[in-house]
Design brief:
The complex is a heterotrimer of chains A (789), B (290) and C (154). Chain A has 18 helices and 32 strands. Chain A is α+β, with helices and mostly antiparallel strands and 789 residues long. In chain A, the strands form 8 sheets. In chain A, strands 3-7-1-15-12-13-14 form a 7-stranded mixed beta sheet, with helices on both faces. In chain A, strand 17, helix 9 and strand 18 form a beta-alpha-beta unit. In chain A, helix 10 runs parallel beside helix 17 and helix 16 packs across helix 17. The model of chain A has no long low-confidence stretch (mean pLDDT 96). Chain B folds into 3 domains: 47 residues, Uridine Diphospho-n-acetylenolpyruvylglucosamine Reductase, domain 2; 111 residues, Uridine Diphospho-n-acetylenolpyruvylglucosamine Reductase, domain 3 (2-Layer Sandwich), CATH 3.30.465; 112 residues, CO dehydrogenase flavoprotein, C-terminal domain (Enolase-like, domain 1), CATH 3.30.390.50. Chain B has 11 helices and 14 strands. In chain B, the strands form 4 sheets. A 5-stranded antiparallel beta sheet of chain B has the order 4-5-10-6-7. In chain B, a hairpin with a 4-residue loop joins strand 12 and strand 13. In chain C, helix 2 crosses helix 5. Classes of the chains: A alpha+beta (789), B alpha+beta (290), C alpha+beta (154). Chains in contact: A-B, A-C, B-C.
Chain lengths: 789, 290, 154
């Protein structure tokens, strides 16, 4: 590959200056005249709405309108195979505590809040079900979606809609090899039940939407979500409008990490705007943002692994029960298959049977969160890997290396793996953390080290496209429909476009601009999500740049008296490849902003991955991913044996992400994942009682502060691996992967420290304390074999 | 946010008159660090807020002729954290402030405001009880003093009448060879505690015997709890005969925690033991060098 | 009528008594660099300096800040970037950027009081500010770099 001058360099983020001066505008920063909307939410987990009396609220001074279910479209929104959610309960059925029932619109937030209390709703309370294993029994008397089989589906791929069991939404099965035979070959069977509590994305910016109708009837929302165009499509479908009659704008977004699946909030804001004829702001409180933007679900994983004395994993049986709450359309429904994205390409396992279920219960609907539940799958699997190693008395690094996939091996879904470096990730991490050296504690603080490996792929399901405009002065304007949610996509695209057009580093900010965040100006893209943006949008941009260059070369060829293929472009100038010193400014080919018959120089391209979909009955998916990235964490923890407190002391890591476009930003993604990992693994959990989340606030939903996270020399990572031939400049996916193997690495380190296996995440101090008490009481002579043999 | 009328009295007596008029309909706001979250989320709805933040002559930390230290009602946590007088006379108070919430809260919030909010997880409450502090209280009816030991009456409730305002904390001079410590067990380092214990121990007879002891448990009941039986175990005891684990067990028996989002009642009770042990050992150490 | 002094300038604001400082700064003065993350004082995104001290503006009634000097992110770096802003940019301590203004002001409050903080001082001093994107690693780095720049007279 040619020497890179912009890609692969630590280019300063193109949005850094705006953000550091407070000039960057986020959703709530636009100060137009507006009304304010507040959502009335159900206090019951399962109920029929008998009557909504808004008469007193309507009379309240300052109230301008109230949106009720009869004002809402009846169409059901969906994600993958089951469209199950209406914007407001047109079918008259409430299915979770906090479900929107009506929207009050008033002159101020305070008035709207007060008027909310004047709306009287009569409910017929129904029996509810909260436990997924209870809900998924065929004879469960409480059925959330009696009409499930008639709902229809938004998309035809992914897990299968379950038709026989009333409260199961989707099902996905893996049937690889002969599981009975596999277990018979095993010298040891290791069975455990793992769980992972639900939690919030915790993005710093709260969901805020401004909605209005333009004079010509176009509906506009300005919102802070990922998947701008996905939202656009849903809104067109909901309101029965053509694509040109709906506009979605996303300014800078203060964190995404998934969630905000079906655009309920955007639809509510639009209904309020249409009702009142004014611009309306719907701003979720922190509480609403925590529980009602599709938080991650509670997952139970049963794992049964069979292993031989020599360390070969011979059989695996898994059962995933995913509690998706009241609806699957916020993203929950995909979890049955997505929970495998961090575990199927690590080891050679000939026999693996699995059944995974997403189950409806009367809890707030869950959605996708960083990794789309792959982290939870990894928690169970990578913990059990250590359990197997421990059982047969093998060092857990050696155990992993023994079973690890190599170039050309086939993954669990039947895909042949190429351009992968998991072994290098393991070995490098082990070296960085000095794996062989035991971690020694002091007094009541015990220390331990743990490893885990995870992987990820760029989501292949949807296409991307890009437009690149080249101005006469050589300025490059890239238009993309993908979202900048903080991950640094604008900088990645700037670097890619700059490399394509050979823009010098010192002219980067001046000569390259990325237009994003507005469906009026940007081409369709699925958006940020599934770690796809660098790969998909990046490749689309490269193709669009090449298309633009081709147009430039066609335009310029006559002047050079040569074929377009002989020409090249750099720093705003065209030249013959053999005579770079005779370069001609692009402006020479323009007259008054028009480049002859070409008009504007616009490069336009789409990009899709030719892929297969997993068979929902067997899991077979031979071309499921364009590439696989890998990440290994080596974590050192301290455990206070008096209180059960766990502290993450050091994290070493190695990634295989092909060619990093911008290494400092990649580091930032992993470091941020470590912070989020510490959050999910040690501190954050929803306390739920009878369908109510008891701690939807940042006082008792404890997001880690600086004090809980290692910094400085205690967090260190490197990149290994080689550029991927199909990635943009060889880059592979990264964004979500950092969260995937973190929890298991910590769990394995805790085991190394205290000899006790915690199978329920988060590993709270109380859980550790109780486990230590239980171990003491069991009073078995503890001859501890550590994870390092 | 709740809509209310804001009164801005120019003097303490004007504030008292307003409180006498509004009574239960009003809340006093100084730093508001406890009050604003409740107002923002409409968890309380007073008709009136009486703003005393700007009142003159209420921000001070002074030593008086009796050897007491007096802290004015508008003194911020941060002022106490950095006060040379506090660091010299009651170093525990400054240490406690260092781990109370975050810098921003301490810059604007007042220690008196914290006490009046009567949160069962307040850090200053058990510490000031261990230090035998009292509050001086004013109203149109006159003045009175309330020992902090009697100030907290129930969950989020104080002994104050609706027309009363705390104007000052007074901490008596500590007897010689008194050491005090505060140990809190938290989930995150700067959280409110799962359980915390403040201990004050005075050594007599050449530092060999415990002359006085106060143990206050926090976050394991609706109010701070004095562990008097545990105190009795210590008084008159020779230092080398103190069985810290036993004292901690007895102290923990006084706790009546509830299971909530901070933890189960059983776990909190175990953490009280840890905190009591830690605070007792530290207090005795400090008494030796005091 | 409320008289406020913000970023060195005087303003007359007509607002309601229940308005918190963050609301007045954002809605009445258009200083949208001050962010509103939670309204429980838990996230720190609303941090401003009042008389040089870091305070969470969602927990302050605007009326209580009469006669005080308020500094928001817009007031920093009026004549070129403040070393903290410079360091945050150069050390990649910004991702989504939402916590950044509050974080920088909290850091300024810290460095104004303690010009030579240790890593632990920085962690404790900023423990009132949450960040979900960075895991804090590069923020601590940036603050320490800025501290050195300031000590060297940048």
């Amino acid at each position: 590959m040619a020497e890179l001058s912009i890609v692969g360099k630590d280019v300063i983020r193109v949005d850094a200056l705006e953000k550091v001066t407070g000039k960057a505008k986020y959703s709530a920063d636009f100060n137009e005249t507006r009304l304010y909307a507040k959502v009335l939410r159900s206090p019951h987990a399962h109920a029929n709405i008998i009557n909504i009396d808004t008469s007193n609220a309507e009379k309240f001074p300052g109230v301008r309108g109230i949106v009720k279910p009869q004002d809402s479209p009846a169409k059901r929104m969906g994600f993958v195979v089951c469209s199950d959610r209406q914007v407001l309960p047109v079918d008259g059925r409430i299915r979770y505590i906090g479900e929107p029932v009506a929207v009050v619109v008033a002159d101020s937030q305070e008035i709207a809040e007060e008027a909310l209390e004047l709306v009287k709703v009569d409910y017929e309370v129904l029996p509810a079900v909260f436990d997924p294993e209870e809900a998924m029994r065929k004879d469960c008397p409480v059925i959330l979606h009696p009409g499930k089989n008639t709902y229809g589906s938004a998309m035809k791929f992914g897990p299968k809609l379950e038709r026989e069991i009333p409260n199961v939404c989707t099902v996905f099965r893996i049937r690889k090899g002969d599981i009975e035979k596999g277990f018979q070959e095993a010298d040891a069977i290791v069975e455990n039940k793992y769980s992972f509590d639900g939690g919030s994305h915790g993005r710093m910016e709260r969901y805020t939407i401004d909605a209005w109708a333009e004079g010509n009837g176009t509906l506009v929302v300005r919102t802070n979500r990922h998947r701008m165009w996905g939202c656009h499509g849903w809104l067109c479908s909901l309101f029965g409008l053509s694509p040109s009659k709906v506009r979605v704008i996303t300014p800078y977004v203060g964190g995404s990490f998934g969630g905000k699946g079906s655009p309920i909030a955007e639809a509510l804001a639009l209904l309020a705007a249409v009702k009142t004829g004014k611009r309306v702001r719907l701003e979720y409180t922190r509480e609403e943002d925590i529980f009602d933007t599709g938080p991650r679900p509670v997952i139970i994983v049963y794992v049964k692994d069979g292993v031989k004395k020599d360390g070969t994993i011979v059989a695996r049986q898994t059962r995933f029960i995913i509690n998706i709450g009241a609806y699957g359309s916020d993203g929950g429904a995909i979890s049955t298959i997505s929970c495998f994205n961090g575990i199927i390409s690590s080891y050679n396992i000939q026999n693996w049977h699995s059944d995974s279920f997403t189950v409806y219960t009367n809890n707030p609907p869950t959605g996708t969160m960083r990794g789309v539940e792959a982290p939870q799958g990894n928690w169970a699997i990578e913990s059990n890997i250590d359990c197997m190693a421990h059982r047969i008395g093998m060092d857990s690094l050696k155990f992993r290396l023994k079973n690890l996939v190599r170039e050309g091996d086939t993954n669990t879904f039947g895909q042949v793996l190429h351009h992968i470096s998991p072994k290098e990730c393991l070995e490098k991490t082990a070296e960085l953390m000095d794996w062989g050296k035991k971690s020694i504690g002091e007094g009541k603080w015990k220390r331990g080290k743990g490893l885990a490996i995870g992987h990820y792929r760029p989501n292949p399901n949807w296409p991307s496209s890009a437009i690149v405009k080249v101005f006469a002065d050589g300025t490059i304007e890239v238009r993309i429909g993908t979202d900048e949610v903080g991950q640094g996509l604008l900088t990645v695209i700037t670097q890619i476009a700059a490399e394509q057009f050979k823009v010098p580093m010192d002219k980067l900010m001046e000569k390259v601009k990325v237009v994003h965040g507005d469906t009026l100006y940007t081409p369709w893209d699925f958006g940020s999500g599934g770690s796809r943006a660098t790969w998909m949008t990046g490749n689309a941009v490269i193709r669009a740049c090449q298309d633009a260059k081709q147009k430039i070369f066609t335009l310029a060829a006559p002047k050079f008296e040569t074929s377009p293929n002989d020409l090249d472009f750099s720093d705003g100038k065209v030249y013959h490849k053999d005579l770079p010193q005779n370069a001609i400014s692009l402006s020479n080919f323009f007259r008054h902003g028009v480049a002859g018959e070409i008009g504007e120089i616009l490069g336009i391209a789409g990009y899709e991955i030719d892929h297969t979909e997993a068979d929902p009955e067997t899991g077979y998916n031979p071309r499921g991913a364009a590439s696989w990235s890998y990440l290994v964490y080596g974590v050192e923890v301290g455990v206070n044996t008096e209180t059960g407190e766990v502290k993450v002391l050091r994290v070493h890591w190695a990634v295989d992400i092909g060619q990093p476009i911008n290494w400092k930003m990649c580091e930032g993604q992993v470091e941020g994942s470590i912070g989020m990992g510490i959050a999910c693994t040690l501190y954050e959990k929803f306390e739920v009682s009878n369908g109510k989340i008891l701690n939807p606030n940042l006082v008792t939903y404890r997001m880690p502060t600086f004090m809980e996270c290692p910094v400085g020399e205690n967090v260190k990572g490197v990149t290994v691996g080689l550029p991927h031939p199909d990635g943009p400049y060889g880059a592979k996916a990264l964004g979500e992967m950092g969260l995937v193997p973190f929890a298991a690495a910590v769990g394995n380190a805790v085991f190394d420290a205290i000899g006790v296996r915690i199978t329920d995440a988060p590993i709270t101090r109380e859980r550790v304390f109780k486990a230590l008490q239980t171990a003491k009481r069991a009073a078995m002579p503890k001859e501890r074999t550590t994870a390092r043999g | 946010m709740v809509r209310f009328e804001l009164s801005e009295p120019k003097s303490l007596s004007e504030a008292c008159s307003l409180l006498a008029e509004y009574r239960e309909k009003a809340k006093i706001i100084a730093g508001g660090q406890g009050l604003l979250p409740l107002l923002n989320h409409r968890q309380i709805a007073p008709n009136y807020l009486v703003n005393i933040k700007g009142l003159p002559d209420l921000e001070y930390i002074v030593s008086d002729g009796n050897g007491h230290v007096r802290i004015g009602a508008l003194t911020t946590h941060r002022a106490i954290e950095f006060s040379p007088l506090i660091k010299k006379r009651y170093p525990l108070l400054a240490k406690m402030e260092q781990v109370l919430g975050c810098v921003q809260t301490r810059n604007w919030g007042t220690i008196v405001g914290n006490l009046c909010a009567a949160s069962p997880t307040s850090d200053p409450a058990p510490v000031l009880i261990a230090l035998e502090a009292i509050v001086r209280v004013k109203s149109v009816r006159g003045e009175r003093q309330i020992p902090l030991n009697e100030f907290f009456t129930d969950y989020l409730k104080t002994a104050l009448d609706p027309d009363e305002i705390v104007v000052e904390i007074q901490i008596p001079q500590l007897p010689p060879h008194t050491g005090a410590a505060y140990h809190k067990e938290c989930i995150r380092a700067t959280d409110s505690p799962i359980a915390s214990v403040a201990v004050s121990v005075t050594l007599v007879e050449g530092l060999g015997t415990v002359g006085a002891a106060r143990i206050a448990l926090q976050a394991v009941g609706p109010t701070p709890l004095r562990a008097r039986e545990a105190e009795e175990m210590l008084i008159g005891k020779k230092v080398q005969h103190i069985l810290v684990d036993e004292v901690a067990e007895v102290a923990a028996k006084k706790a009546c925690p509830i299971s909530d989002v901070y933890g189960s009642a059983e776990y909190k009770r175990e953490m009280v033991k840890v905190a009591a042990r830690g605070a007792l050992i530290q207090a005795i150490k400090r008494a030796h060098v005091a | 009528m409320l008289m406020l002094r913000v970023n060195g300038e005087d303003y007359n604001v007509f607002t309601e008594p229940w308005k918190t400082l963050v609301r007045v700064l954002r809605d009445d003065l258009g200083l949208t660099g001050v962010k509103e993350g939670c309204n429980t004082g838990s996230c720190g995104a609303c941090t401003v300096l009042i008389d040089g001290k870091a305070v969470k503006s969602c927990l302050v009634l605007a009326s209580q800040t009469k006669g005080k000097e308020i500094l928001t992110i817009e007031g920093l770096g009026k004549n070129g970037l403040h070393p903290l802003q410079q360091a945050f940019v150069e050390r990649f301590a910004i991702q989504c950027g939402f916590c950044t203004p509050g974080m920088i002001l909290a850091a300024k409050g810290l460095l104004d009081e303690n010009p030579n903080p240790t890593m632990e001082d920085v962690k404790l001093g900023l423990s009132g500010n949450l960040c979900r994107c960075t895991g804090y690693v590069k923020i601590v780095e940036a603050v320490l770099v800025a501290a050195e720049m300031i000590r060297k007279g940048a």
